[in-house]
Amino acid sequence: GKKGAGAAPSKTDGGGKGGNEFSNAAVSGAAPAAPAVPVDDGGFGKMSQEVQYQLMEAAGLKPGPNVSLALAVDKFRREKTKEVLLYIFFLFLFTTSTYLQRDVTDAHAYLTEVKTSILDEPFPGLTYRKRFEDIRTEDDLWLYLNNVIPNYLFEKSDGAIDFVLAVNVVVQAPRLRQVRVKKLPGSSCRLVPRIDEIETCFPPYSDANQETEPIFGWPPGRMIPYSTSTDLNTAWYGTGILAYDGGGYALDFPLNTTRNEMVAAMQYLRQNRWTDTQTRALFFDFVMFNPMERFFLSCRLLFEFLPYGRIHTVPSFRVMRIGLDSNRDYAVFVLDGMTYCMIVYYIYKDFQTWQFLGGARYWKAKWHWLNWIIYSIFTVAAVFKLRYWLISFQWTRGDPSLDATQAVFDFEAHGWTYSQIWNWTAFNSIFVWLKAFGYFKYVGDRMSHLASTVIQASNDISIFLFFFGLVVFAYTQAAHTAFGTDVASHRSLANSFFQHCFILMRKFEGQFDPVKEINVYLGPILLISFEMLCVFGLSRLTIAILSKHYANMKDVGEDDAMTVEFRTTMYRRLGRARHRFMDFFLWRPRDDVAMFRQERDREMEAIEDRESKPKKRRKKDLGLDPAAVRALQKHLTHVQDGVQVLQDKVGKLYKRYAAHGLVHDDEEEDEGDVANQVQAFEDEIKEVKTQPVPGNKTVLPPTWRVMEGDDGSIFYFNVETRKVQWDPPMVMSAVAPAEEVIEVQDLEEEEA
Predict the structure, then answer these.
(1) What are the backbone dihedrals phi and psi of residue 358, each rounded to the nearest 5 degrees, phi first?
(2) 85-99, 487-501, 714-728: least confidently modelled range
(3) Residues 597, 579: contact at Cβ < 8 Å?
(4) What mean pLDDT value characterizes the chain?
(5) 279, β-bridge pairs
(6) Which of the 8 DSSP states describes residue 206?
(7) Out of 56, 310, 535, 550, which could bridge 453 as a Cys pair, Cβ 3.0 to 4.6 Å?
(8) How many CB atoms are closer than 10 A to CB 7?
């Protein structure tokens, strides 16, 4: 019975299933460990081989006989902590540099005021209100050029071009540019047989149909030659209905031009029909600078001469900042450079991971796809930034005397490049913060369930969105084909697509009547079927997919052991940091008891820290077994309760002896009687110590059990050390056997 009770149980390696290439106890050069205290590996020993491979990959290790799960856990903890903190710092750099590089609030206020003042300037001399957007004919156009433009270009009636709205400086000569097409013979026009031949044909605009013969200009008698986009330093423009080349017939108004001179020029051009049926576009460009906010504002007014005889107006205003003029600009430039340096570092780390895992396993992770999307967008934004800053530095260091006589710089194209920087940056902000969602699983189990749900549901949602997009496009094409000619909201595929998006957002007002008027049957059928299928059907399928995966995730239970281990470690460290902060800044112990408790807490924190360190750092801390120390501390508390019970017993015995006259205060008492009384008292105390304390089971150490042999004899068995003895073990004996059997290898197993 004694030997059977003390038989050692069979051991299992920490690698889970048999045949693994690594185990909890495998360390290079380590000898097989003697029977020791079993190690709690936090559930790693129950992992399947595939999960253990994933654990090793997360830690950046390759499975092998010299690699242990304890090493993987420690490396994963350190690398993941570094990764999380580094990404938080990257988010700070990216957000700060983006916010400081563009003052969106002030730029919006400045743009709104100037844009409203220019576009809402009324036509003078009319009994009704007419503005820029109301221009439809050539008469409206020349009335605007002759009366409205001089009102905001000339603050003083007799002055030159200087300020706009009192404070905005005009930085270069305004330019009026015309784009024309060739006059073709009537035979080139596409006619039907019943219509007679037309003598002259004016084709739509295209690069091949552009007119290049000189035309008259200002002052009288001057001929304006055709200039290419390179000659004018002007880029193509595609914001209107058509895209136009940067060339044409340019007429620049020097900054010393007076109001009367500009009015006379406009009247002369109108009277001599500077614009006619060959004109396809007219551009009026000017640029202003606000010295208070340091904003450049490019203003372009486009008048498109449509082939069907009407004029379409398109305004364009672009706010930008050019150059580095203050310490703040240089600081922001440095922050942006640091952001891109971190992007280069992340690309380098991803290449290392690619080489480590191989292409198949690397691209299996969805977060790696997201990383390269972010890198690609940063690369595109970097190209636009490099182009913008190179051109900006070239212009700021150029000759300023040319600005007074001609428009030497295309601020519109430069503003377009500036806007593209922030369009791509804004688009990238979504993915940068979406990547932070992957770290939420280290915050808590609920956040981990949510993040895992999104990842697992991504495949189903991608397939659903593809199918959903096909359905929306089918209805978009149907609506554009059926109603695009008559309904403005469906005049193009893009407009029809956005209109269906509005329907998905439950904006049904004004949708039904226009299509019903065009086709009383097809219109309602398309609209109602789209609402039933997409709005009330497919749009709710996304919620169903997410709900299903979230329910499955909650049913499975806790997430992977690496995440739990990392989260527990971080919570413990953050809690210690918080307590130390509060102790140092908010509260300090004032008495000896509080000082003792604080010192005891620090010692226990130091013990726990040593447990979490790798084996190379633990070899110097093998004086005591931390598990035995914790057990000793726990049971010393219970022993203290037992001592208190013994003290109460002694007090009762003392009162009993005093009641029987065994204790006297007489100094002349016989020494022999006193010795007899003391001996009797000590015998009584020994008898009390050997008796078990009622209601207190902590006298026996936790690793010891009371066993009964075949013959009914009682003995004591240690479940950890397999030691058997007849005498009741002392509490302190729980430490000695552990210290004798614990070796370096066993302690490393406990870390796992």
Answers:
(1) 90, 160
(2) 714-728
(3) no
(4) 76
(5) 180
(6) -
(7) 550
(8) 8
pLDDT over 60 at 18, yes or no: no
pLDDT for 559 equals 54
Regarding pTM above 0.85, the answer is: no
What's the Cα-to-Cα distance from 166 to each of 262, 475, 588, 646, rounded to whole Å?
Answer: 19, 52, 63, 97
Q: What is the pLDDT of residue 232?
A: 92
Whether omega for the bond prior to residue 219 falls within 30 degrees of 0, making it cis, is yes
Beta bridge partners of 723: none
Please tell me the distance from the alpha carbon of residue 79 to that of residue 614, in angstroms, as a whole number: 14
Q: Look up tokens 């991971």; give the residue.
A: 353
Nearest-10 crossing angle of helices 69-101, 561-581:
60
Nearest-angstrom CA–CA distance, 436 and 95: 13
CB-CB neighbours of 27 under 10 Å: 19
3-class secondary structure for 669-711? CCHHHHHHHHHHHHHHHHHHHCCCCCCCCCCCCCCEEEEECCC
Tokens (6 digits) for 571: 């919570």
Paired tokens of 356: 């480590």
d(CA 749, CA 39): 6
∠ CA 265-269-272, nearest 5°, is 140
Q: Going by C-beta distance under 8 Å and a sequence separation of 6 or more, which residues neighbour residue 735?
A: 624, 625, 628, 629, 631, 632
Residue 374 has pLDDT above 90, yes or no: yes
Asked if the model's pLDDT at residue 77 lies above 90, the reply is: no
- Residue 623 vs residue 468, higher pLDDT: 468
Give the N- to C-terminal CA distance of the chain in Å, as an integer: 35
Q: Which of 4-13, 282-291, 317-326, 391-400 has the highest mean pLDDT?
A: 282-291
In terms of Cα–Cα distance, which of 196, 200, 166, 162 is closest to 182? 200
312 forms bridges with which residues in the sheet? 304
Residue at 532: amino acid letter: M
| CA distance linking residue 457 with residue 162, whole number of Å | 61
Under 8 Å between Cβ of 281 and 302: yes
Beta carbons within 10 angstroms of residue 317's beta carbon: 18
φ, ψ at 501 (rounded to 5°): -65, -40
| Alpha-carbon span 279 to 129, nearest angstrom | 27
**Tokens found for residue 241:** 């209905």
> CA–CA separation, 11 vs 24, rounded Å?
12
Q: Cβ contacts of residue 508 below 8 Å, gap of 6+?
A: 531
Q: How far apart are CA 35 and CA 743, in angstroms?
A: 10
What backbone phi and psi angles, to 5 degrees, belong to 164?
-115, 125
Among 410, 440, 539, 561, which residue's Cα sits nearest to residue 24?
561
Query: What would the pLDDT profile of 449-460 be if each residue is shown by its tens digit?
Result: 777 787 778 888
3-state secondary structure of 34: coil
Q: What contacts 367, CB < 8 A, 6 or more positions away?
A: 435, 438
- pLDDT of 388 reads 93
Instruction: Determine phi and psi for 380, rounding to 5 degrees.
Output: -60, -45
Provide CB contacts within 8 A for 275, sequence distance 6+. 138, 141, 178, 269, 282, 305
Q: Which residues pair with 289 in a beta bridge?
A: 169, 296
Nearest to 219 by CA among 179, 174, 166, 265: 265
